Hints:
By secondary structure, chain A is mainly α. Chain A has helices spanning 2-36, 49-53, 57-88, 96-108, 113-124, 129-138, 156-176, 180-188, 193-222, 225-230, 238-247, 257-287. Helix content of chain A is 74%, strand content 0%. Chain B folds into 2 domains: 32-157 and 283-342, 3-Layer(aba) Sandwich (D-Maltodextrin-Binding Protein, domain 2); 164-279 and 350-371, 3-Layer(aba) Sandwich (D-Maltodextrin-Binding Protein, domain 2), CATH 3.40.190.10. Chain B is 43% helix and 13% strand. In chain B, strands 3, 4, 5 and 12 form a 4-stranded antiparallel β-sheet that branches. A 4-stranded mixed β-sheet of chain B has the order 8-9-7-10. Chain B starts with a helix and ends with a helix. The radius of gyration of chain C is 22 Å and the shape is globular. Chain C has a single domain, classed as MetI-like (MetI-like fold), CATH 1.10.3720.10. Chains in contact: A-B, A-C, B-C. Chain B binds chain C through residues 2, 5-6, 20-21, 23-25, 63, 66-68, 73, 77, 89-94, 101-102, 104-113, 167, 239-241, 244-245, 264, 267-269, and chain C through 34, 37-40, 58-59, 62, 123-124, 126-127, 130-136, 138, 178, 180-181, 214-219, 223, 226-227, 229-234, 236-237.
Amino acid sequence: xxxxxxxxxxxxxxxxxxxxxxxxxxxxxxxxxxxxxxxxxxxxxxxxxxxxxxxxxxxxxxxxxxxxxxxxxxxxxxxxxxxxxxxxxxxxxxxxxxxxxxxxxxxxxxxxxxxxxxxxxxxxxxxxxxxxxxxxxxxxxxxxxxxxxxxxxxxxxxxxxxxxxxxxxxxxxxxxxxxxxxxxxxxxxxxxxxxxxxxxxxxxxxxxxxxxxxxxxxxxxxxxxxxxxxxxxxxxxxxxxxxxxxxxxxxxxxxxxxxxxxxxxxxxxxxxxxxxxxxxxxxxxxxx
Amino acid sequence: xxxxxxxxxxxxxxxxxxxxxxxxxxxxxxxxxxxxxxxxxxxxxxxxxxxxxxxxxxxxxxxxxxxxxxxxxxxxxxxxxxxxxxxxxxxxxxxxxxxxxxxxxxxxxxxxxxxxxxxxxxxxxxxxxxxxxxxxxxxxxxxxxxxxxxxxxxxxxxxxxxxxxxxxxxxxxxxxxxxxxxxxxxxxxxxxxxxxxxxxxxxxxxxxxxxxxxxxxxxxxxxxxxxxxxxxxxxxxxxxxxxxxxxxxxxxxxxxxxxxxxxxxxxxxxxxxxxxxxxxxxxxxxxxxxxxxxxxxxxxxxxxxxxxxxxxxxxxxxxxxxxxxxxxxxxxxxxxxxxxxxxxxxxxxxxxxxxxxxxxxxxxxxxxxxxxx
Amino acid sequence: xxxxxxxxxxxxxxxxxxxxxxxxxxxxxxxxxxxxxxxxxxxxxxxxxxxxxxxxxxxxxxxxxxxxxxxxxxxxxxxxxxxxxxxxxxxxxxxxxxxxxxxxxxxxxxxxxxxxxxxxxxxxxxxxxxxxxxxxxxxxxxxxxxxxxxxxxxxxxxxxxxxxxxxxxxxxxxxxxxxxxxxxxxxxxxxxxxxxxxxxxxxxxxxxxxxxxxxxxxxxxxxxxxxxxxxxxxxxxxxxxxxxxxxxxxxxxxxxxxxxxxxxxxx
Lengths: 288, 373, 267
């Protein structure tokens, strides 16, 4: 048995190679290359200037703005998405309602970029459908205090538009994993619905919920297309700073700043994922 | 059963891989080397030989040429019809810097751009990517508008203008009009000046119309800060979609872009274009051939096409001033109706030199974000 | 079936779905409204009928090409997910349980590296890839497989957690099944739902991807929509809507087909 296992292990390791090679070639290598540019300047000499450039107030502010935007849309999206998953409990797994919502979520979770931005401009832009309707019917001008749609606050609604479906997709399997037998058991022991959720439901779902929340946060954090289409002045969040460094045709020679900014972004994500990992093992231990 | 299944999968996998690989493009023609170093039509053995060589290549990759930018839609279509060569128009929305990045990223691949149409700032710092080529009409182009070996050459310029929806706002007669209440939340420029040339030109224009000069664009930045403080500045990138939907009723952009919007919105919006009296601002774009062009003969034929009378008149039709305008007026080959519609180029057309552009960019990089926040 | 502890009341269910559904529908409605606009104040179907007009063939050639490319890419990406990720996950779960954390970590990395930065590093890699495989569009699927990893991993992981695949595989092995039988006839049917969900997400990601295709100068659905939006915003909006509708129908079909499992006599 031991001999077979060790022989089997050799073959098994071989089985890991395609995936490993794939990941190395298309993830590790590009990431290292991209981050590496942050350490060089335009002429190819090693420098720390790009990294110190990260400490400029404008850049720090863009990180701060990105963090609160991602955090807010992640939390709100997670809650709204979880509500939808909750609403779908008890419906037939292969029924039209669930299939339909699952499909819609799958589609909308990836709906982003220029078209999403334009959809929101068409809806709540200055000449948007909703804006004009509110103006005409209730005489409410949502832009009384200034046009917020084309600045960072204006990104909240479009981001939520793909965050909520993403939550539905990633959280639904966990939600449907809640066994009715547990509810029955809880009821048998005299627990109400509220007790069930508080004592059994939430704790069981917590790791998945947090995992999905983190996914949502990361999604908003690295999102680029929608912001690029809506916010065209000033690069107030980090992905837009990356864009500015890479594509500017007026302020030249700052391309390597993109690498430094990427390093900054990855550092933030690593910190978050470590925290998540710690939380995850805590929750698992607790659950056992 | 198991072994057969395994063999079956392996065979299918290999077949799939082979099929997909053979879908890749075939090898290039033999005398690409010679074509890649040709510096004029003579090196091909005459214009007809150039056309033949280009047609043998069959394709041309262009980049950053939107259909509605200075009539490039018609220019590309004309090229396809005239020579039967398919034009692959990639990434129309990218900036000049991204054109060079694309050439870098796609070096050696079939999808690499063959020719560039760049702003001067990027063109002057990227000459390593260009191959020298002198078109047949080389002599018509003034010396200061071209690189002497033919690495780059000006092709057209527009005038910085203000396009506006005549139903939504009154016609602006001077720059200060835009600070008025009629224009609240309505004035946009084509991009971020720290990134896009057309937007930087809008700020330069504001400076020239005000107290500033080509050396000092501070008044331009101040104007936009004022515009923002008055609540009139709209920080949205105007696109054909936003103009059609009425989101951006006033746009600072090159005359040929605003005129294209006028044509596109005919019957939907009354889009008018005005160039304010006084100093006018222009900025010539540059044509260049990629030194690593996958289709070198077609690339050079494209250059000939761009500087031919037909296309230079097409530029004029779109509202841009072609570089050979003076020569064409003399020779009588200019499209007189188009010229009348656009108007003769004014005497005080200003274009910033390389140093002035650099200084302006530095100033914008410092102050723009603060000015419009 | 009478309400058990966890189901919501019908009222609650429809309230939640109704409110959120309405809010989510609004931007789509706005897009449809825009695509129907003609002269100010009027509506017209001209933009919609114009798509099929042969006169506009050259203008829309790129669009149809982009659609075809995106579909091809979706197929190849789904193949990569199912043929490479799933076996690896099963292998790790069965043979290398200590590597679970690492696999999860690796599969989460793509989310931390924004596409716009990844593509800077992908460009030289694709230079090599193009030399081997040519510059065809399908090679882009290699990059897409990476971007899809986090979502696909979660979907398959959730399915794997729901069934105890270690016990299942040991039971099958003890009954004399070879590894291929174990994988294809025991494990896959049980994690099928997760694989399907992963394929669904992969398709959606590929159809909506823009940054990588654009920066590597390839034509896919999103880049061609952007291209056309520069000259004809109405058609761009219409195509975006059609793409959404198509993806939706596709996903519904996959969902229905995948959900209808052959009923077995024992559960």
